[in-house]
Amino acid sequence: MMHRKAPIALGRSGFRGLTLVYGLAHLGKSLFWYASELLLAFYLTELAGLSPHQMGLVLCAGLVVSAVIDVVVGARLGRVMPDARSAGRLQLFGAAACAAAFLAITAGVWAPIEWRFAYILTAGLAFRIAYALYDVPQNALMSLGVSDAAARNRVAATRIWFSGLAALIITAAVAPLLSAGQDDLPTYFWVTFGGSAFAVAAAAGLSIALARVEEPANRNPGFVPAARWRPSNTFWLITALMAVTSIATPLFAKTAPFFAAYVLKSPIWGGAVASGMAVGILAGQPIWPLISRRWSLAATLAVAAVIQLVGLSAIAHATTRLAETTLHTFVLAAFLFGLGNGGVGMALWAGFSAVTARQAPGYEGLAFGLFSGVAKLGLSIGAIVLSAVIGGLRHESGDAVALTAMMAGVPAGGALIGLVIACVWTQTATHRSRISP
Question: What is the pLDDT of residue 245?
Fold first, then answer.
């Protein structure tokens, strides 16, 4: 007996199961992302034995290549990814390739020291290319498989919630990593293997779930792709926001292991601070969709940026009074930063997906490839800055100032720019009616 297929409706109240499967697949992808963003820099220098310069080159080269690949893959996938089901199949292939490449990076610590850098650099480039095949199709589902603004906001919140869970899982490894020795490396490899297996299984589950549904929510028998796509001012505004947040915000988490080792001098404190950020991301996701129902996404962005600033200011203040500060102060400040971070992410992804769905039919792959490519160029800039700062550390009192500036000052600058963009976004929505998600 053949069962009737249900329409794709990610984010709608009657399709919570499909949205949950999407969230789990995003969790698998986010495990790779946070492992590379939160721990890879520390892993390469402290365990793999690379110099800060080599670490920066591995991260920067991989991200720059990945940015180019995202745009190329996005443009090419537009022809083979006309609907959500095809996107589901493509993200499964990307997940498998990504898992193999990341395991190769982890195994690099056993390569002979004389060619370890070349090996890890090559494996890192392979990982970034594979991640594009994984990332672009899964991101495009936010336009291909979502029917309305409310559903899109729920899917964006689901993504951020599972991203926060992935961050929490990865940050749980901060304390063990800070105190690890070479004898612990096999354990890390098998943990990486387990995470990779989960990611592939979750991607397979999403592909199967999408294969059981009919037409994407925003497609119909008369659908004709746009003959020509002209990105709007709102498109570029939100893309600029992605660039700013990609440069500034991740430096908090990337610097956290070094901040814990050289300033707090406590692996436990370092793990707690990083976990506080992740818990803040998780805690905010039931709240931000509710706020976005009452206010615009631009207003939601502004509130989230202010909360980020409060948390970062508390981190900076606590560092100046380190002898009198308790762990709870750092954890609470990190929680507030994570709470605001989740709101910024939700507004960013929901807003961009709405613009793409409305203005770029048939060009979703290219749009999301360009969006993620800009993000990775921003991350590459952050990696260069981080490697320069880490390379200049002298294990003296001045290190606290440099690391605090990296961990709190730069993200605070990004939050301030986010406030400005929120104001411009509001004006654009009010006077030009470009987007009102």
Answer: 92
Residue with tokens 């109240």: 13
pLDDT at 263: 78
pLDDT (0 to 100) of residue 351 = 87
pLDDT, tens digit, 9 for 90 and up, residues 112-170 = 888 888 898 898 889 988 988 898 888 888 877 777 777 887 888 888 889 888 888 88
Tokens, residue 295: 């206010």
pLDDT of residue 143: 75
Q: Name residues whose C-beta falls within 8 Å of residue 168's C-beta, 6 or more positions apart in sequence.
A: 275, 278, 279, 282
Q: Are 34 and 168 in contact (CB under 8 A)?
A: no
Q: What is the pLDDT of residue 138?
A: 87
pTM confidence score:
0.74
Low-confidence stretches of the chain (pLDDT beneath 50): 1-6, 216-226, 431, 433-437
- Please give the Cα distance from 360 to 435 (Å, whole number): 13
Cα–Cα distances in Å, from 237 out to 39, 373, 412, 421, 426?
A: 31, 15, 19, 7, 11
The span from the CA of 247 to the CA of 254, in Å, is: 11
How many residues are there in the chain?
437
**Could you tell me the two tokens for 249?**
């915000």
Q: Residue by residue, what is the 3-state secondary structure of the chain?
A: CCCCCECCCCCCHHHHHHHHHHHHHHHHHHHHHHHHHHHHHHHHHHHCCCCHHHHHHHHHHHHHHHHHHHHHHHHHHHHHCCCHHHHHHHHHHHHHHHHHHHHHHHHHHHCCHHHHHHHHHHHHHHHHHHHHHHHHHHHHHHHHCCCCHHHHHHHHHHHHHHHHHHHHHHHCCHHHHHCCCHHHHHHHHHHHHHHHHHHHHHHHHHHHHHHCECCCCCCCCCCCCCCCCCCCHHHHHHHHHHHHHHHHCHHHHHHHHHHHHHHHCCHHHHHHHHHHHHHHHHHHCCCHHHHHHHCCHHHHHHHHHHHHHHHHHHHHHHHHCHHHCCHHHHHHHHHHHHHHHHHHHHHHHHHHHHHHHHHCCCCHHHHHHHHHHHHHHHHHHHHHHHHHHHHCCCCCCHHHHHHHHHHHHHHHHHHHHHHHHHHHHHHHHHHHCCCCC
CB 10 within 8 A of CB 155: yes
